[in-house]
Amino acid sequence: MFDPLRLLLIAPSLAVILSAGVSASVANGAPESSTESSPSFLVDVVPILTRYGCNGGGCHGKATGQNGFRLSLLGFEPDFDHVALLREGRGRRVFPGSPDSSLLLSKAAGQVPHGGGTRIQIGSEDYRVLRDWIQAGAPGPRPEEPTLVRVSVSPDRQIVEPNSTLQLKVVAHFSDGRSRDVTDRALFETNLPELAEVNETGELTTNTRGGLFAAMVRFGGTVGVFLGTVPFRGTTIDVQSAVIPETTNTAVRDAASSVNRLLVDQWNRLGVEPSAPADDFEFIRRATIDICGTLPTAEEVTLFSNDKGADKRVRLLDGLLERPSHASWFALKWAAILQNRGRGYSTGKQREGTALFTAWIRDSIAENKPYDRFVTEILTATGSQERVPPAIWYRSVRTTKDYVESIAQSFLGVRIQCAQCHRHPAERWTQADYYSLAAVFARVGRKGGFSDAEVPTSEVLYLKDRGEVTHPRTGEVMTPRPLGGPDFQLSKYDDPRRALAKWMTEKDNPFFARTMVNRMWGHFLQRGIIHPIDDSRSTNPPSNPELLDTLARDFAESGYDVRHLIRVITNSQAYGLNSAPNESNREDLQSYSRFYPRRLPAEVLLDGISQVLAVPTVFPGGPGTFPVGTRAIDLPDENVTSTFLDVFGRPARTTACECERSDEPALAQALELVNSSEIQRKLAHDDGYVARLGGNEESHSNNTVDIFLRVFARKPSSAETETAVDFLKSETDRGEAYRSLVWSLLATNEFMFNH
Fold first, then answer.
1. Sign of CA dihedral 721, 722, 723, 728
2. Does residue 113 have a cis bond before it (omega within 30 degrees)?
3. CB under 8 Å to 267, separation ≥6 — which residues?
4. Mean pLDDT value across residues 249-261
5. Contact assessment for residue 156 and residue 51, using Cβ atoms and an 8 Å cutoff
């Protein structure tokens, strides 16, 4: 006699199929839909699982699953999910013969114990969709089914008043030209909940605080974004007209003027008034630090402040770009991004190479080598690392993972690490994108160059005849392809790296110019238009898209002229503002309505202390390794022992991320300022600045002016002069008095921050 219960125990997957009264698919063991009107697994079921967090990283979507049940992260592998639902768990997860008894529903509805608690209400629309799908035989993805192309959000951008609501509408667009309102199936979240929140129905609610925010909308593996502006005062106010730079360089003036107009437009939308312009003392210190990584001297400050020329700031910027220290400072920045690393290897065996690569970077910046050529020479480097300095990049960047992640983050501004194991949860990048980019480097060969300790010293790079990268899940041999682009059409004689460099440096490339522009804007304005600066994705949109596009277009049209880009940014109205907030922009940290202060980088801070005290730092290795007067910004790599540099956030250069450099305050930094033997040596040095102050015959008042110009790049106020003179007179030991005064000023935020 036929016993369905016995059959369920013996062959659960077959029982599911038979109890539904439908035929089995021989190809994949999945039942076919018994009706054309049944809910779609791709369009209906997977988005519901995503909306309720079932396939999230904290639940069944993590790599190990949860309680024996594993789904693909956010439903990016629907075929895998369909098998997991139908054929695992002894066939009890979906039971077409009795849909309400399916574990998928009974657990989600809280009818049986569920670690995730009750996720869905019985009788709700989502419950009904899942039930109808199960009752129809739980059909899987159908080959003929139209695919989801994109989702659109309306409105996609709007000014939203504080303490107000706005309903978002989400429409899915399919490959057959159809569209469908999926607002009730989408997953919503905002990037700044303190500004605005959005509920499960897409209703957006703003809070009292003003600012810029984005709402991310996820549906069926695609993402849409709404950009919101909450005015700080609820209504826009008039602000000053866009400033026209004084420069006679027409290209710079036109570009900077366009930038200024876009800045003013956004200040109007936000209802903020920009801070007053920075004075001459603030500007020369700021620009000298940002462009040269160096403090201005007292003489330079005095000459600049006394200059009455209307174009003196333009002339200052032009002069700073010609200084050797400009090349040294930006070479240090790029050496970290390009992971020119000495630590982890024998210093004696690696120093020659790291010094050679650093010198090549410095020379490239000194000659203002076009950025596209700079990057191309690195990517396509071939030959001996002893004679081809860019080839030294391949010393630290050696593996499939290194190639993909370093290139994506350094030159394309994309953090693609997630796609190594699964589709990126917040972007369109898949494992296929990841390993197709890796395939570009599959034929990079290496020979020689290993020491007795088996560490790379000077290898020879060449193009192998063959080389391949396979997809870790499918086993497919991947064809070289750029991110978001078509496969490269290559012969066996072509170097895929050259094809990548050509694609990357085209003027219409969607990543290359934008990434460099954003990186440089972040360097000078302390915050990227996309922030973090190397994390470009649809769910992390730019704070001012038009500004980013304008700068990128101008940079590409200039022939990737980096100095032109620096001139445009430093001649902008935003760069010339005071850092002191006013009543309207006190909480604004996104629109550059004031200059945002930032602590000096470790190397700049150490060199600044050395410059003020007129005593150079002595680095380990002796004069033969580092001549007297060697600055921290001129060091060849990070493997030079310095407790001060490490404590103040020197990067380890293990990744291409600028986030390795830390400017966060720490107790160890305060202790270093107090106890550092190097700082004490400089303060007490017989030939140093403090000793000269203690031994000269100048009045305390004159000495105080000189100290303030040297330390702060400004003259002291009358109150500051009076306080300093009173202190100096109260001390019996003149030398000790000046030592204490200068030491205390070096420990202030005014000295330690660029503002």
1. positive
2. no
3. 239, 273, 274, 591, 593
4. 92
5. no
Q: Measured between alpha carbons, how far is 556 from 666 in angstroms, rounded to an integer?
A: 40
Residue 753 in 3-state DSSP? strand
Residue with tokens 């990357």: 504
Tokens in use for 396?
């630290």
Percentage of the chain exceeding pLDDT 70: 91
State the pLDDT at residue 37: 66
Q: Which two tokens stand for residue 596?
A: 């945002």
Distance (Å, whole) CA 270 – CA 550: 20
CA distance 740 to 720: 15
Q: What is the pLDDT of residue 349?
A: 62
Q: Are strands 222-230 and 157-159 parallel, antiparallel or unpaired?
A: parallel
**Residue 219, SS3 per DSSP:** strand
Which tokens hold the place of 200? 């499960």
Residue pair 584/274 in contact by the 8 Å Cβ criterion: no
- CA 716 to chain CA mean position, Å: 39
Distance CA 606, CA 597 (A): 18
The phi and psi torsions of 280 (rounded to 5 degrees) equal -60, -40
Q: Which stretches does DSSP call E strand in 116-210?
A: 148-154, 157-159, 165-167, 169-174, 179-181, 187-190, 196-198, 203-206
Nearest of 635, 565, 608 to residue 332 by alpha carbon: 635
pLDDT for 424 equals 64
CB 137 within 8 A of CB 34: yes
Q: Which of 433, 426, 434 is nearest to 541 (CA)?
A: 426
Token pair listed for 530: 């996309």
Calpha distance 443→121 (Å, rounded) = 55
Give the start-end residues of each E strand in 619-741. Answer: none
pLDDT above 80 (res 362):
yes
Give me the pLDDT at residue 239, please. Answer: 52
> Which domains, from first to last, does the chain contain?
4-135 (no CATH), 148-230 (2.60.40.1080), 370-504 (no CATH), 602-754 (no CATH)
Confidence of residue 28 (pLDDT cuts 50, 70, 90): very low
Sign of CA dihedral 565, 568, 574, 580: positive
What are 442's two structure tokens?
A: 């599959």
> 587-612 burial, b for 16+ CB within 10 Å, e for fewer?
ebbbbbbbbbebbbbbbbbbbbbbbb
Give per-residue pLDDT as tens, 384-422. Answer: 999 999 999 998 898 989 999 999 999 999 988 877 877
pTM, two decimal places: 0.87
The half-sphere exposure of 529 on its side-chain side, counting CA atoms within 13 A, is 25
